[in-house]
Design goal:
The model has no long low-confidence stretch (mean pLDDT about 90). The chain has about 150 residues and is an alpha/beta fold. About 45% of the residues lie in helices and about 20% in strands. About 35% of the residues are buried. The longest helix is centred in the first third of the chain and has 16 residues. It contains five helices and six strands, in the order E-H-H-E-E-E-E-E-H-H-H. Strands 1, 2, 3, 4, 5 and 6 form a six-stranded mixed beta sheet that branches. A hairpin with a 2-residue loop joins strand 2 and strand 3.
């Protein structure tokens, strides 16, 4: 992968939100806890992007994203939902995997490359199965980092 996306073990969590708004709030809180970003600013950015159209990718995944001058490179958090939630995805499948992405404000191409890298990951059947089968956040992080490390090699 030609994109350097920041992710640390603490940025991967299991969650039980009841709706898409709670998903966005949980993502913003995780960005704040793990990376020190302002949760309210991230939440507003995610909500503004979502207002343009659902970031429900399909195949049970969503990629809510926004930009912020508080990050230097694309930064990611991942939620695995214990109960899939309707996220108005194009294929109408409820979402169980959520990849939150915050990219630098002026990183147009870099942001698009990061989104493309995540979408490639989700189109890989074996990877999608491994992510869905991961029993906990630690296993989910291991699956993700093994994939990103392999792509970087």
């Amino acid at each position: 992968m030609d994109v350097n996306i920041s992710i640390v073990p603490e940025a991967v969590a299991l969650a039980r939100p009841e709706n898409s708004q709670q998903i966005l709030s949980k993502l913003a809180d995780l960005f704040a806890q793990v990376y020190g970003l302002d949760a309210q600013i991230v939440l507003e950015g995610l909500e503004q992007r979502e207002a343009l159209g659902s970031t429900g990718f399909g195949r049970g995944a969503a990629i809510p994203h926004c930009r912020s001058d508080a990050v230097k490179r694309p930064t990611m958090v991942v939620l695995k939902l214990e109960n899939p939630i309707d996220f108005k995805a194009a294929d109408a499948m409820p979402v169980a995997l959520v990849f939150g992405l915050v990219s630098p404000e002026n990183a147009g191409a870099t942001h698009l490359h990061a989104l493309a890298a995540i979408s490639r990951l989700l189109r890989d059947e074996a990877m999608l199965s491994a992510l869905n089968d991961a029993p906990d956040a630690e296993a989910l992080f291991a699956v993700l980092t093994n994939q990103f490390l392999r792509d970087a090699a």
